[in-house]
Design a protein that fits this description.
The protein contains ten helices and eleven strands. By secondary structure, it is an alpha/beta fold. The structure holds guanine (GUN).
């Protein structure tokens, strides 16, 4: 078993990106909006802003209280979107329950959509177009699989989870790579899920359910990618995979933490640079 070391690869990617950003004719800017007090979101945003700094991206941070109105949130997004120094805009999710998230995200134009959430970018991904800004977690997983030279063409991949942020764009990316992908979700018959997983070359788990993938579901030699991150009762972190029992069966597996998480942030930085280069090409 070998670990898919996202921390290591993300550091390499960030170092390469820092060189490109240094050579870019103007400062590259990322706008980040955080609304409310979700502690996990606060940590993610802090990490994203620190990552920007580490590779020379200028961050424009806006914070609004949990009680912010729809109009206030929309105004903050529009201010970021309309700032020519801001090449990418990220609205940290989840937004407070009283905010209509889709109406907020709709204000981000595709060319500044560094999360790859807009219909235009999902459509470009589906069409395998090079100018797509691709959702950061799926893009990070693909980069990690490529770095470890894990073949995808013709391989049987089970994607567990069909969220707009991870599962759906990951399925599209894998299709574009020539993989045979099966998209499973919470409604999938558990016995069928197990049977599928047991014949899979690669299993990617993004369900938000701690230790959903257990050893009896994994074919010896499979590659396992864990997108989950949860705090256990004893204060440790765990993923959607029962790592202790699954890892010995695998050929490659992502650790939690240090696997997918750092890759997501690295891809956010790459997308921001890509958005800046595309803006420069249009100018
Ligand atoms: N919340 C959890 N993951 C993400 C992400 O990738 N982007 C944003 N904007 N919010 C998130």
């Amino acid at each position: 078993m070998e670990l898919l070391n996202g921390k290591l690869l993300s550091e390499r990617i960030r170092a390469e990106l820092a060189e490109k950003i240094k050579a870019f004719p103007k400062p590259v800017g990322l706008g980040v909006l955080l609304v409310g007090n979700d502690p996990a979101s606060a940590v993610y945003v802090r990490n994203k802003i620190a990552a920007c700094k580490s590779c020379g991206i200028v961050s424009f941070e806006r914070r609004l209280a949990e009680t912010a109105t729809q109009a206030e949130v929309e105004k903050a997004v529009l201010e970021l979107v309309n700032d020519p120094a801001v090449h990418g805009v990220l609205v940290q999710l989840p937004l407070p329950a009283h905010i209509h998230a889709e109406a907020v995200l709709r204000l981000i134009p595709a060319e500044k959509d560094v999360d790859g959430f807009t219909p235009a970018n999902i459509g470009k991904l589906a069409l395998n177009r090079e100018d797509a800004l691709i959702a950061c977690t799926p893009a990070g997983i693909l980069a990690l699989l490529r770095f470890y030279r894990i073949p995808l063409r013709g391989k049987k991949v089970v994607m567990i989870g069909t969220s707009n942020i991870v599962g759906k764009p990951m399925t599209l990316l894998l299709m574009n790579e020539g993989a045979t992908v099966t998209a499973c979700q919470s409604k999938t018959d558990p016995l069928y899920l197990k049977a599928l997983c047991r014949t899979a070359d690669i299993i990617i788990v993004a369900t938000g359910k701690p230790k959903l993938l257990t050893a009896d579901m994994v074919n010896p030699g499979a590659v396992v990618v864990d997108v989950g991150i949860h705090r256990t009762e004893d204060g440790k972190l765990c993923g959607d995979v029962d790592f202790a029992n699954v890892a010995p069966l695998t050929s490659f597996i992502t650790p939690v933490p240090g696997g997918v998480g750092p890759m997501t942030i690295a891809m956010l930085l790459c997308n921001t640079y890509l958005a800046a280069t595309m803006a420069e090409a249009r100018a």
